[in-house]
Amino acid sequence: MLSVNQLRVSYGESEVLHGLDFAVAPNEIVAIMGRNGMGKTTLMKSLMGIVPARSGAIRIGETEITGLKSYERVAKGVAYVPQGRMIFPTMTVQENIETGLTVHGGRSVPGDLYELFPVLLEMKGRRGGNLSGGQQQQLAIARALATKPKVLLLDEPTEGIQPSIIREMARTLRRIRDEKGLSIIVSEQVLSFALDIADRVLVIENGEIVHEDSRDAIDEAKVARLLSV
Amino acid sequence: MFEGYSLAELGSIFAMQGFAGLILFSVFVLMALGLAIIFGQMGVINMAHGEFMILGAYVTYLCSTFISSYAPALFPVYFFIAMALAFVASGALGMLVEWAMIRFLYRRPLDTLLATWGLSLILQQVFRSVFGAREVGVVLPDWLMGSVAVTGTIEVPINGLFVMALTTAITVAIYAVMFRSRWGQGVRAVMQNRVMAGAVGINTEKVDRYTFGLGCGIAGVAGSAFTMVGSTGPTSGQLYIVDTFLVVVFGGAQSLIGTIASAFTISQAQSTMEFFLSGSTAKVLTLLTVVVILMLRPQGLFVLKVRR
After folding, report:
1. Contacts of A47 (CB under 8 A, 6+ apart)
2. ipTM above 0.90?
3. CATH 3.20.20.70 is held by the domain A2-91+150-227
4. In the Cβ-directed half-sphere of A25, how many Cα atoms lie within 13 Å?
5. Residue among A74, A127, A128 whose CB faces B201 most closely
6. Is A82 on the interface with B (CB under 8 A)?
7. Which residues of A touch B307 (CB under 8 A)?
């Protein structure tokens, strides 16, 4: 569904990603793991077009999206849940979700989104900024899903969220994948969460993929060692 | 300062100055709305906003001259045509400026400040070259002349009432566009988080261009209204820009209600005090009050309280 070839990204003169290669199959959940500063967020941002790629190619199916602007990538089927959630704080929950409808021109929030996140229906008139961290995370995911994506990018979704909600989120993400048939890329530091949802785990270190495992055959000890500081 | 006036006279003075203040208020509101939209949306401090207003005023002047000599039958309603043209002219110029200049300067607030100030000087000189340095005024159609006598000592000018009705209509329209339409939702999303707005599929560049155009267009309409209460010269816009900034900062940059409330307070204070004190003393007092209030409430009068 999504394929990345020799992706290089740099901030000014310092290169952060040194030629990444990977692909995500339809309906697959891939976790990108790594310690802080290894390039996870940069990878997410470059997939979304927020940070430009220096060279290499990103494709959705057969369509190349490397040079496109963020909003054009959304139209091609990429959706993004950033680190820190970044919902629009002074807009209501409903308005927040509606911003995701811009691309496809829908009028109202699809009911199945509220079905996935019943708490958002309860709070739909409330300002996004007044929600709790976990609720904001659900809102950010709902907003991304409103764009009808083929690939959903989640950047450290568990950051700052309590364990019981993390487990709930893993269930919801798997359910979204099963119901909507999309691919999910999630960047993560928490191994248990990654093992809970991912079909495949990639470990990124200093801007290169150093380890890859499918969930069934994962060498848990090795991944844990790569993640430890 | 009140000695020598009887109580009844004082009442009339307050009423009439208050009304004069309302006209000033209308011009302020229209100017400040445009400025607040542009500032809130893009963080661009548009020093040339006054010149966009004056462009609208000159368009109105041209329209009045043209219609009175070529289509006198239309003269009674020329003002509405002039307003639409002023909106289009200022809006189009605003979009051109955004495309040619402002979009290269986002995230560089000091540079936009200088660049738009330079633009304001250029526009002033263009006005001077085209229309001459002398101030021009428009001829109002008969139905806008005269005043309504409320009591023996209080008279309310009709053009003032008209300007106020106009301002109300435009404010309501802007409110509807910003808070009820899908487009306005996009504008607010871009205002709050430009990067994220792009990442949910909003074409931020297009939103920027139209928003800048809208803000400038409203300034053009303000210019139209301005012709009724003052005469138009190349530098008239300068007199208003500082006050308008004051209104925007005082009201809280992202709040429509705040902008309106602060425009009302400032214009009423100015207008009433100007009658009793000299113009500059009135200004000093207004500024001092605003400074003190801003020290107590740095975010302005109205702030939305949410977690960030």
Report:
1. A2, A4, A58, A78, A80, A153, A185
2. no
3. no
4. 6
5. A74
6. yes
7. 89, 129-130
